[in-house]
Write a structure and sequence with these properties.
Blueprint lengths: L6 E5 L4 H12 L3 E6 L2 H11 L2 E4 L5 H15 L5 E4 L18 H27 L11 E6 L3 H4 L5 H21 L4 E8 L12 H9 L10 H13 L7 E4 L9
This protein binds NADP nicotinamide-adenine-dinucleotide phosphate.
NADP nicotinamide-adenine-dinucleotide phosphate (NAP) binds next to helix 1 and helix 4.
Length: 255
């Protein structure tokens, strides 16, 4: 599918990978709705990209529906390109030394990362299914989710985060299969370590140790490289129902 002339919506677009994606889609000629928990952050990115910025919690179905409705009204139609980047990074051992079980954190992580992604996908699919097909294949749109390499090689302390991302990877194929009859593709990107505010808090020694494990290139990814993969997924009509790792061939160690 072409980017130019289409409408896009990026959740988590106020920061990091989502902001880079919003910028790239805008440069490619899409009208972009930037959605983030912080309306201020979304509006700041939208002021660069020329689209609109909206505040919404992706795990709140009513807020997501309102954001899609607002975007459609402001940009002239439902988005055909939807990218879910909203998410939280959490870390806790199952059995922390203080003895307090972090079950509430597990629930919150699944709520934002997995339920939030599913909610955006559901609302996006409903809106896209009502659009006219674009080409002889019958393509109506593409939805790109964001997992993490932790979905396959989660480290100690990542049980909740890895489970939330594993859920996203696992729903990719059944979603693609179900939405195929509407001409909607569903893909997931599993990033390794990227330079964003989410990873900025890593202690320097942890960061150096992680970078040393990256076979090639031995550096953190740039958000623009994630955004480039989103563009490539949108543009290649045969990519569907798959989770792609973008990670310098890293396989994370247990800790
Ligand atoms: P980021 O810079 O923190 O951006 C994530 C954005 O999502 C933030 O603006 C955040 O807002 C927003 N957000 C959080 N909860 C939300 C909610 N409930 N509703 C709407 N927006 C919400 O992080 P990033 O590094 O770009 O991460 C983007 C995605 O990539 C995440 O799903 C993350 O798990 C995944 N990922 C990142 C890396 C990495 O190395 N950076 C690696 C693997 C996977 P607040 O800042 O206000 O919380």
């Amino acid at each position: 599918m072409k980017i130019e002339g289409n409408i896009a919506l990026v959740s988590g677009g106020g920061s990091g990978l989502g902001a880079a994606t919003a910028r790239r889609l805008a440069v490619g000629g899409a009208r972009v709705a930037v959605v983030d928990l912080s309306k201020e952050a979304a509006v700041a990115v939208a002021s660069e990209t020329g689209g609109i910025g909206l505040g919404a919690d992706v795990s709140d179905a009513a807020a997501v529906e309102a954001a899609f409705a607002h975007a459609a009204e402001a940009l002239g139609g439902a988005p055909r390109i939807v990218v879910s980047c909203a998410g939280i990074g959490t870390a806790a051992r199952i059995l922390p030394r203080d003895g307090a079980l972090p079950i509430a954190l597990f629930e919150r992580t699944l709520h934002v990362n997995l339920l939030g992604t599913y909610t955006v996908l559901s609302v996006a699919a409903k809106a896209m299914a009502a659009l006219e097909p674009l080409d002889t294949d019958g393509a109506r749109g593409v939805i790109v989710n964001t997992a993490s390499v932790a979905y396959q090689d989660g480290q100690i302390g990542q049980a909740a985060y890895a489970a939330s991302k594993g859920g996203i990877a696992s729903l990719t194929l059944p979603a693609a299969r179900e939405l195929a009859r509407f001409g909607i593709r569903v893909m997931t990107i599993a990033p390794g370590l990227f330079e964003t505010p989410m990873s900025a808090d890593l202690p320097p020694e942890t960061r150096a140790a992680l970078e040393a494990e990256l076979p090639f290139p031995s550096r953190m990814g740039k958000p623009e490289e994630y955004a480039l993969l989103v563009q490539q997924i949108v543009e290649n009509p045969l990519l569907n129902g798959e989770t792609i790792r973008i990670d310098s061939a890293v396989r994370l160690a247990p800790k």
